[in-house]
Amino acid sequence: MSTMAPEEKHVSRRGCLKSKWARILLAVIVFIVLCAAIIPAVVVTTLRKNNSMGPKSKVFVPLYVYPAPGAWTPLENVVSAYPDVNFTVVINPGNGPGPNSLPDANYTREIPVLASYANVRLLGYVHTSYAQRNISLVRKDIETYAAWPTNSSNPDLAVRGIFFDEAPQQYSAQSLNYLQNLTDLVKELNGFGSNGFVVHNPGAVPDSRYLASADSTVVFEGTYSSFQERQGAKLFTAIPDSNRTQLCAVIHSVPDTVEDPKLRSLVKEARKVVDELYITHLSVDYYASFGSKWTEFVDLMSD
């Protein structure tokens, strides 16, 4: 039985009520704070999920830009700004390695700079004239690239494989043997590192029997309008015995109106089916400079 006076009981009950309401108010405040923290995170996660760009792809760069001071800066800027994006970069000193054992001073200055980035793989340009060029001349070009580190006494003056331009599209056993012999040479030479990388460029979907003789094949090189006419990514889905890790696409002459969400959709569509991708809005000399949407393209490739 309580011995508390009536007025004391009244004060006690009033204190209990205040305490109860304080606890309720505190619970409401905690709930609001939690909602403020959780709901935006859920929304951002949902948006990211809905805006997913799909599988990551490498940025493929036909760098046919002469390396005068500052000319390669737009590439170096994005390479350093996006360390999680991998770049496959093709250099072409003189329709191949050039006539001498080493390229000129501008190349010997700039190549080691690009080669120093862990997310860059440099390739040397060699043309095959659709497997009709004298194979001894092609082998000589390959061996010249491979000897750069030794001839320059600079291990960073090096490429890590070969980009074979003008690769055949129609099948012949002779052409396949030609290409396979060149691939074997690239893989054997120490100058390309532990495993030289080989890219073929027929510029169109080749006979699938050629795919195994390269690490990557450019199955589309053309204009944006041509890409759209061929139903975009559906163009590649019919390639038998292939997967996206073997495929590369080069899309140029993209209209300036294809920007923001339209460019995002284009990049997303292509990334579904190719592991290496180059897109430029330039319609003239599209491999000799960087277009106005270059940084935007690389940024989309980082998503």
From TrEMBL:
<keyword id="KW-1133">Transmembrane helix</keyword>
<dbReference type="InterPro" id="IPR021986">
    <property type="entry name" value="Spherulin4"/>
</dbReference>
<keyword id="KW-0472">Membrane</keyword>
<dbReference type="Pfam" id="PF12138">
    <property type="entry name" value="Spherulin4"/>
</dbReference>
<keyword id="KW-0812">Transmembrane</keyword>
<protein>
    <recommendedName>
        <fullName>Cell surface spherulin 4-like protein</fullName>
    </recommendedName>
</protein>
<feature type="transmembrane region" description="Helical">
    <location>
        <begin position="21"/>
        <end position="43"/>
    </location>
</feature>
